[in-house]
Amino acid sequence: MKIHEGVDNFPKLNFPVVTSGTFDGVHIGHQKILEKLREIVRQNKGESVLLTFWPHPRMVLHSHKYQIKLLSTFEEKAELLEARGVDHLIKIPFTPEFSQLTSEEFVRNILVNSIGTKKLVIGYDHRFGKNREGGFEYLSQHAAQLGFEVEEIPQQDIEDVAVSSSRIRNALNEGNVKIANKYLDRAYSIKGTIIKGAQLGRSIGFPTANIKLDNDYKLIPADGAYAVHVQFEQHLYRGMLNIGNRPTVNGSERTIEVNIFNFDKDIYKKEIKVSFVDQIRKEIKFPNVEALRKQLMKDRELANDILNG
């Protein structure tokens, strides 16, 4: 897959099959669009083009209201899209100025003049242009004069629940990683660097590695204990991870700490990847450290049961 910074120097392709969107998380709804993209590419011996925006539009347009947390970094998204067979990924810098493009300007300047789109595939209720004014109806009405065909993917439901990045974020914010993983079609994961911690866990037989995320916009699931898989230097380990403020020891700062089973390597300042399998329990304040230690023993047993399943 080739990654292009903007459209200014985008190469001329024989039959570009295009889709656009934020594709945060590349969940199963997104994957349906990508399947259709690949199908049309095969039928026409063309090349797939995915147009995405970075930063995420909500990070630019609504930063004064709230800070959106994302399911994937740009690098993670690119890796997921490449695995799904995308040939060209165009990274459009999303700025306040870009957000003022009308739907007509977006279509003519980018889809037609810069990319030379032959067929456009969009998801259910996809909107674009200033104030999200453009959509399937506009594209269908103007397709002939624009010189490309348009295909809309119907709304994707799982057990009568519409799949969206927002629903996955909500599930993770509630600690429901099993639902999030179902919608993502993979385990939700975070990456980060190991930093020095208070080392309380080591003193009670549960040494933990404190993880500092590489950015501040990646979504961290709800506080609690989780069964996880840990990837370090191409090796996969089992573990349990705690997110929270460590109320038993009067902690104040929210931390992410992982206890890796059967592991004794020095990973300080090294990067690891943690994949969430299921939540074991919510964060609890125990009466003392000994009560915490006994609960951690139960947590480890339950985590192994979950990871065995």
UniProtKB/TrEMBL annotation:
InterPro entries associated with the record: FAD_synthase (IPR015864), Riboflavin_kinase (IPR023468), Riboflavin_kinase_bac (IPR002606), Riboflavin_kinase_bac/euk (IPR015865), Riboflavin_kinase_dom_sf (IPR023465), Rossmann-like_a/b/a_fold (IPR014729)
Enzyme kind, highest EC tier: transferase
EC number: 2.7.1.26, 2.7.7.2
Reactions performed catalytically: FMN + ATP + H(+) = FAD + diphosphate; riboflavin + ATP = FMN + ADP + H(+)
Record key words, sorted: ATP-binding, FAD, Flavoprotein, FMN, Kinase, Multifunctional enzyme, Nucleotide-binding, Nucleotidyltransferase, Transferase
Keyword Hydrolase in record: no
One GO MF term: riboflavin kinase activity
Biological pathway: Cofactor biosynthesis; FAD biosynthesis; FAD from FMN: step 1/1; Cofactor biosynthesis; FMN biosynthesis; FMN from riboflavin (ATP route): step 1/1
Residue stretches making up the Riboflavin kinase domain: 183-308
Role according to the record: Catalyzes the phosphorylation of riboflavin to FMN followed by the adenylation of FMN to FAD.
UniProt record similarity statement: Belongs to the ribF family.
Protein name in the entry: Riboflavin biosynthesis protein
Source taxonomy: Bacteria, Pseudomonadati, Bacteroidota, Cytophagia, Cytophagales
